[in-house]
Design goal:
alpha/beta, TIM Barrel, eight-stranded parallel β-sheet, 11 helices, 10 strands, globular, binds NADP nicotinamide-adenine-dinucleotide phosphate
Length: about 325
């Protein structure tokens, strides 16, 4: 089945190379999308409490599992410790809430969503400082949180653990202070933001890279606008070199962007809530890019970060926020 190509993680667990991303999907959209994705052969689902759709995803998973249409061991479910709960004492309670929402006994991979932590009020709204910016919690301690993450593996709530949005220095620091090394670092990675230094370092340390926003997060402009953030969002599907390579293989630009990612040994989690595009994004295992084409795509790097968390107004004040020096727009 197309969706069952894997990358073996540093703990021997096999992770499907393509997963479905679920950010910015309403409950209704996500139910249709997860149904269509499972039909198409996806077994890897990337979610997070922040996306607000774990309950809806859980409903679909339960239907499929109860009907015997899929076995739990064939699914690879990823969720994350949110930035509002990035503290040691919150880890167990928060994963248990996700598991209850997803109607699962364990997740296949649990990630620290961001290297930074933000504060919320009792009602769940962000705490704001005197300037009206989100209040950050500067006590974030990755090593201490990681001890609690490691306990999740020991007590069977997560098969693997990892991080997301961590810089090279943050991964290096964690590697020096852990018993279980992170299985993956989930980062923004696409032809315009290749982060070669970080990617090469993680690979050398046997920390797999998962590419989020692999198609350039085409829907983020609307999300940013809702938060009062103006950013140019380049259309990766319209890059002449990408279109040219796609035409040469009879494939779509999206398929070329995804094939390039997995050809460079990286896992990709494209989001779609459209059944046709979901199938298209998985149908990338019947062609191969030439080394010349791979080089052409490598040369496109522009250090353009699309998902820069500017929608978390004020987060750049956090000492573990490392994106600020990488803005190009
Ligand atoms: N760890 C983190 O901090 C973090 C941050 C961002 C994202 N993520 C994860 O990564 C996933 C993917 O990233 P993303 O959602 O930012 O962006 P993305 O996957 O790069 O792009 C998704 C957008 O592309 C469109 N699309 C999908 N397939 C297409 C195709 N074949 N042709 C044309 N358009 C296509 C989708 O629209 P349709 O739905 O209409 O097809 C959607 O607007 C997220 O959903 C989330 O699970 C994680």
């Amino acid at each position: 089945m197309a969706g069952t190509k894997f990358l073996t993680l540093n703990n021997g667990v096999k992770m499907p190379l393509i997963g479905i991303g679920t950010w910015q999907s309403s409950d209704e959209e996500i139910e249709t999308a997860i149904d269509a994705a499972l039909e198409a052969g996806y077994r890897h689902i990337d979610t997070a409490p922040v996306y607000g759709n774990e309950v809806a995803i859980g409903r679909v998973l339960k239907r499929w599992l109860d009907a015997g249409k899929v076995k739990r061991e064939d699914l690879f479910i990823v969720t994350k410790l949110p930035p509002i709960a990035n503290r040691p004492h919150e880890v167990e309670g928060v994963i248990k809430k996700s598991l209850a929402d997803l109607q699962l006994d364990y997740v296949d991979l649990y990630l620290i969503h961001t290297p930074f932590t933000v504060n919320i009020n009792e009602d769940g709204s962000f705490k704001l400082d005197k300037d009206g910016l989100i209040e950050v919690d500067v006590t974030t301690n990755h090593a201490a949180t990681w001890v609690e993450m490691e306990k999740l593996v020991a007590n069977g709530l997560a098969k693997s653990i990892g991080v997301s949005n961590f810089s090279k220095d943050q991964v290096a620091r964690l590697l020096k202070n852990c018993k279980i090394p992170p299985a993956t670092n989930q980062i923004e990675h696409h032809v315009y933001l290749q982060q070669r230094d970080l990617v090469d370092f993680c690979k050398a340390e046997n920390v797999a890279i998962t590419a989020y926003s692999p198609l350039g997060s085409r829907g983020i402009a609307k999300f940013n606008a809702g938060a009062g953030v103006v950013r140019d969002v380049p259309d990766l599907l319209d890059i002449p070199e990408v279109k040219e390579i796609a035409a040469a293989h009879g494939k779509s630009p999206a398929q070329v962007l995804l094939r390039w990612i997995i050809d460079t040994g990286v896992i990709a989690i494209p989001k779609s809530s459209n059944p046709k595009r979901l199938k298209e994004n998985l149908d990338i295992f019947d062609f191969q890019l030439t080394s010349g084409e791979v080089d052409k795509l490598l040369a496109l790097d522009k250090n353009i970060r699309v998902c820069d968390f500017a929608f978390f107004h004020g987060v750049e004040k956090h000492p573990e926020f490392t994106f600020k020096n990488q803005y190009t727009n």
